[in-house]
Amino acid sequence: MEYLPEELLICTITRLLEGTGHIAVGVSSPIPGSAALLTRALSNGKTGVTVLNSANLQTLNDGAGELFDRAAQGRIGAFFLSGGQIDGQANINLVGVGRYPQQDVRWSGSFGSAMLYYL
Fold first, then answer.
1. pTM higher than 0.85, yes or no?
2. Tens of pLDDT along 76-114?
3. Count: domains in the chain
4. Is 15 part of any domain?
5. With contact defined as beta carbons under 8 Å apart, do 113 and 119 qualify?
6. Residue 57 is part of which domain span?
7. For 13-49, how does the pLDDT look when each residue is reduced to its tens digit (9 = 90+)?
8. Residue 72 CB partners (closer than 8 Å, separation 6+)
9. Is residue 14 part of a domain?
10. DSSP states of the chain as a string?
C-alpha cells in the first residue's frame, strides 16, 4: 500500500485522538486539523472539533476567551501548537525565534499557548 507521509501522520494522530471528547486546532495546522476531522468522522458524533478562525468549523461564540474557559473546565481534550513553537529538543517555545525583544519571528497566539500548555 502506498501513501504520502502526510497521510501517515494524519492516521497516526487520529489513532492517538481516539476517545477524545473535544479537539481544538488552529486554522494554520492542516495535518492536525485533518486528523481532528477524521477522528470526529470515525467517532459517530462523539468527538467535537473546533477549528479556530474557521468560517464553518468555529464552535466558539466568544473566541479565545471561551476556548480558555473550556480548557480550564476540562472540556478541551486535545489542542495543537504549531510546529514552530516546539524546538528540535522538544522544548516549548511559546513566543518566537531570535533574541528578545527583537525576535526574528513572533508566533501568533503565544499568550494563549502559554496558558493552554499548563492545562
1. no
2. 999 887 766 777 777 776 677 788 778 888 776 666 676
3. 1
4. no
5. no
6. 21-117
7. 999 999 999 999 987 789 999 999 999 999 998 999 9
8. 119
9. no
10. ----HHHHHHHHHHHHHTT-SEEEEETT-HHHHHHHHHHHHHTTT-SEEEEET-SSS---SSTHHHHHHHHHTT---EE---GGGB-TTS-B-SSEESSTTS-SEE-TTHHHHHHHHT-
